[in-house]
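Lab notebook, bench 4. We co-purified these components, and the gel suggests they stay together. Before we commit to crystallization screens, I want a quick structural picture of the whole thing.
Request: model the full complex, all chains together.
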Amino acid sequence: MTTPEQRRQDAVDALAQQTIELPSWAFGNAGTRFKVFPTAGVPRDPFEKISDAAQVHRHTGAAPRVSLHIPWDLVDDADGGMEKLVAHAADEGVAIGTINSNVFQDDDYKLGSLTNADPAVRRKAVQHHLRCLDVMRATGSKDLKIWLPDGTNYPGQDDIRDRQDRLAESLAEIYAGLDPDMRIVLEYKFFEPYFYTMDIPDWGTSLLHCLALGEQAMVVLDTGHHAPGTNIEFIVAQLLRAGRLGAFDFNSRFYGDDDLMAGAADPFQLFRIMNEIVRGDALRPDSGVNFMLDQCHNVEEKVPGQIRSVMNVQEATAKALLVDREALGEAQRSGDVLAANGLLMDAYSTDVRPLLAEVRESRGLPADPYRAFMASGYLDRVRSERVGGTQAGWGA
Amino acid sequence: MTTPEQRRQDAVDALAQQTIELPSWAFGNAGTRFKVFPTAGVPRDPFEKISDAAQVHRHTGAAPRVSLHIPWDLVDDADGGMEKLVAHAADEGVAIGTINSNVFQDDDYKLGSLTNADPAVRRKAVQHHLRCLDVMRATGSKDLKIWLPDGTNYPGQDDIRDRQDRLAESLAEIYAGLDPDMRIVLEYKFFEPYFYTMDIPDWGTSLLHCLALGEQAMVVLDTGHHAPGTNIEFIVAQLLRAGRLGAFDFNSRFYGDDDLMAGAADPFQLFRIMNEIVRGDALRPDSGVNFMLDQCHNVEEKVPGQIRSVMNVQEATAKALLVDREALGEAQRSGDVLAANGLLMDAYSTDVRPLLAEVRESRGLPADPYRAFMASGYLDRVRSERVGGTQAGWGA
Amino acid sequence: MTTPEQRRQDAVDALAQQTIELPSWAFGNAGTRFKVFPTAGVPRDPFEKISDAAQVHRHTGAAPRVSLHIPWDLVDDADGGMEKLVAHAADEGVAIGTINSNVFQDDDYKLGSLTNADPAVRRKAVQHHLRCLDVMRATGSKDLKIWLPDGTNYPGQDDIRDRQDRLAESLAEIYAGLDPDMRIVLEYKFFEPYFYTMDIPDWGTSLLHCLALGEQAMVVLDTGHHAPGTNIEFIVAQLLRAGRLGAFDFNSRFYGDDDLMAGAADPFQLFRIMNEIVRGDALRPDSGVNFMLDQCHNVEEKVPGQIRSVMNVQEATAKALLVDREALGEAQRSGDVLAANGLLMDAYSTDVRPLLAEVRESRGLPADPYRAFMASGYLDRVRSERVGGTQAGWGA
Amino acid sequence: MTTPEQRRQDAVDALAQQTIELPSWAFGNAGTRFKVFPTAGVPRDPFEKISDAAQVHRHTGAAPRVSLHIPWDLVDDADGGMEKLVAHAADEGVAIGTINSNVFQDDDYKLGSLTNADPAVRRKAVQHHLRCLDVMRATGSKDLKIWLPDGTNYPGQDDIRDRQDRLAESLAEIYAGLDPDMRIVLEYKFFEPYFYTMDIPDWGTSLLHCLALGEQAMVVLDTGHHAPGTNIEFIVAQLLRAGRLGAFDFNSRFYGDDDLMAGAADPFQLFRIMNEIVRGDALRPDSGVNFMLDQCHNVEEKVPGQIRSVMNVQEATAKALLVDREALGEAQRSGDVLAANGLLMDAYSTDVRPLLAEVRESRGLPADPYRAFMASGYLDRVRSERVGGTQAGWGA
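Here is the predicted assembly.
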């Protein structure tokens, strides 16, 4: 029998080890098709993005990696290439994480990239992914994340099944280029940027392609990429059971792929997701599951928006760690619905902010990273320093 | 190059062969949790249900099989057992089709059947399925359809992953009981009768279990069992590509699992589904895909409701058969979005009722089966004959 | 400036006054169209339902009223009529609250009640409501709640606009029968039990009819009766602004009208709703807003399910009361998105169970009503006493 | 009793008079937040947009008006102002229709325009609308369409009710500036560009504000602006009954506000909507309902995309006009569900393309406007002529 005190101590230990990867693009401007509102002080290049990301790590101690988007975050080879960026990250105390291939902003990809009916476009898209593998070799990254934006807008526009065949073929070419210690993590999305079909709309499709590719292919679950009402924690449990959950893209949503801060829209859902992670023993650092943020800060400040999101994931995790699993299992097996639900809710109802403050302070971190960052003067500094140039956004 | 005339002739041939299986339970009373409204003349036993189903076949020539629900359609062994029912069906010109196992109406199944935490309940549920295999041997059925109603209502109520393990084990026991020419067809459902988790909520889960079981396990797609906005024809294409689409449960919906008449809520969707069937060459009788109705006629008359549904499926199929696939493929490959969409819509806009009338009349059937049935006097007859007894409904 | 201590004290005062009305039908058996699972000890008549409801009040001190459903809760006049029931309630320490008219279980209502195309059926439905007014006079009830189940299943089945005209006319007849101190509270519902149209599907339709009727007609908001993704707290704010929010039916949902325990599916949503209530000063007892539960306990025990639900509403209310509204208003006016959101979340993240325990104990109530009830032996007692008879359910 | 021939003739007459207004912005580039793909030959200024729109009218004879978006379509006063644009439109055979106020692309509107917490921003937004009224006076427009993009992304970000009060005040100021023959048509939208609240999310909110403003304020229904599953034709019927349906924005959707071509995603829904229009006698030119398109052609050619959309609306209208309303009313009143539904479906199943070809040819128009336009050489011509400059898009 574990005691509350043991659970608390186990939670402290696990929380001290938990890491969350940040997306470089969250620090640039973002918006909707209607408008991207600019924000003072926003980075103008990958170096400044990494500096901003490092602020999140500095105050939370929980965000030591930054994902890059290629080509957005490519640094000109004439300048010394990606090595300088890696060195800059190291200077700032963080490392380069997952490499994201961007195949949604080249004019050629209007009707698809890896699934395009035109073999020349498919070849170009495959080549882009192979170049991403080179970036991974240059940056020490091990995961190539493919979010495939491909799809169609109208019934009949293209052949659904042909597109799957082309996708399988394109993915196989990319997979063949992996080093033995590299992985493809393959994301799915319900809709957007296409509105009739998406070529990987659901976890089933992603998983089928991963199974066909081999052991180095895993599914990515973005919490905003599902149909209304979808039980996401069920999918988490299912993919863990199948041994194919490779990574999370955390964010939150009320409607579509809103890309709001993780935990902002439905903190209880985030708790239930983390509860399946803890239940499936996938929180430990060597579990093979990479926990990443993928968000847009359209109206709020970006660095503190990331800090808040990291804190929200930590709080959900802390609550999940506090669940009395022995008592829960007993209630479940005895069919006591109210007792079992009550045990889960007991953990959720707990205010874990003091616990997390303690974890942070024991590691020499501020008890409240958000407040500490806001008091640090960083935002004022970058607002005055970063004048001129072009602010980074969802573009090169 | 096919000519319109050739496509028309191919359509005539294919339509003459198309069959749709009817559910015995559609002829009994149905309703919502609020009320089951009785209808005069409704069958009181499986024999009368089959007689009603035979009326649909008599007028459409397209519905030669009837699915049974066990135990609803069990006939007392003391009376000579299921043999009498098979003989009655033969007399009426139809055959017994798929056997459906019912594990949602026994008090023991409150917290699940094949996934119940209690091994004794699981054993009972497995035994029920093995008895269904006996019914199949007695009736000549080859498909055991498992729609698993199991799930939970509250977070924490039971362990999501444990339930998957129990499900895999239960299914394996049933699968082991199959004769070599039998199949399990495994249905999935988004929600209802449980409201937090369903143990098989999506095609991915159903497929994973089928893959684990073996070649004799196939997925059933019920058109009403998806999240809002789900692209069902995509799933059809995907399951055909994986070689695992075993059967359809046709019906239509505006909101949840409304179980309205097929084609009534979104006839364009039904057309797009049949278009993937034709595209995937799965319409031919030996394709392994069984086309069934699964509906409730809460407010409308049942026999003509089934006739209308069969006609709706036929119309959607006829339109799909008229698509000019060569021109469509060309437009798709050339990236002409409007032309490709237009070619699909040309087929959909066609009024195929004359074509279907011709197909029917050439086979000695009434041009308009609905009108012919309504004029036949059958409803008046059963209303006056079927007095006393207990009307069949969603119960024994 | 309010201090945290003042807010806490204000919360204590407000929580001590908050009352939640219970539905008599929650204590009977409930289920889905697939199955109603029986539960040992369930009431067999309105008297036993009220005794069960009184248990909730006994342990929470917050549930002093019970809603009735007519005709389900009619007591035979020969036995002394409703007076006996009122006296029994008083004996048990509770009172009769809202009267619900049931027009979904008579065979005549298959195609509608107040909107039926047949004037005789409409007249019958209007008469039923006028009889409900008599029940109100007998029981001292002031609110007639009309949840109109009417609708259609198929496009074309009936004329949408004619049904609105008939509805307006029927409602006007009922309204004309109100005593000056009585109200109609008019509920809306997105779908179910009909699947194409509902005659009052949304708050706009309910409000239009209330405006046409007069000052004694108010809108009822059932938290489970909206389209996926609907922002319910917005509707709360809107109806309060219009002065037409008459009552709540609390429950929770993941998919359709799941009727789960309030706060079980999305506790953050319940908090946001109560936050608008507090913001709109509608929590005070004389605000004209009646807070009711409307739930089904399909798989869980009913009395403790109600207790848990009352506690969940109390916790959401407590958190809403703790919001630092001055600081929030300042952050909102200054456009500080993260600060404003953070202030709301601070209140939500607070563990209010100790505060509520204190409120209860100061009133001589158990700190944990759920635990106290479970320890009381009541369930064992009624299980052994209530043998024979017909268990109450969704039927007469 | 009407005969089929009379219904056909009435349909011919009504179709010859039906007009559909085109949005100037549909002819520029459009896309998603991820990418706007450029299209060769796209207009660079409002004059070229109107020339393109005039092509739609030239081939369909049904699109004589063009809506403008201000400031996108403002012409520099130094050049002679909007008068030149009006004259250009007249030369091209079309007129300026509705004026749309754009308050979503100025940096000041990040946290709202008419509802912004900052009075200076609200004043600026009101002033912009008053300038739009001047544009209306210069162009002869009578309708000011307000689609309010305002909303919030996070719970607590702003006060829901305060925003309604500010909105009411801002609208009242704009309304006060209307000439007696002008109208405000007020649009609602479920979500996007904000993801927690929209300040006018539903028809109820729009209607409440219209009722408060006065007789010159009407609701606009955009077919893409509803929650999943919403019955749009019900809202059409409801707004017609209330006398407050001012205009349509037609487009189609599978998921969010996809802005696909009208009739592309759910042609049966478009038919049901037009059926309520015909039923409510709102098709006649003086009904006060303006039928407009509001679409994005992200992947398809724009001028033919508009032509196809106009044709789709015409086909839906033609089918609605063919409904045998006498027989339908009889079936509805007699409660014959299948007959009533069948009568509606009979009209929908009809291939109305020959009828529309006849209407067009009798007016000297091409039988197939899409084909005629594609053969006209217009696209080739503008592709070669419109080189240099900046293509119009969702921006100035």
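The mean pLDDT of chain B is 97. Worth comparing against the SEC data before the next meeting. Residues 46 and 73 of chain B are 5 Å apart (CA to CA).
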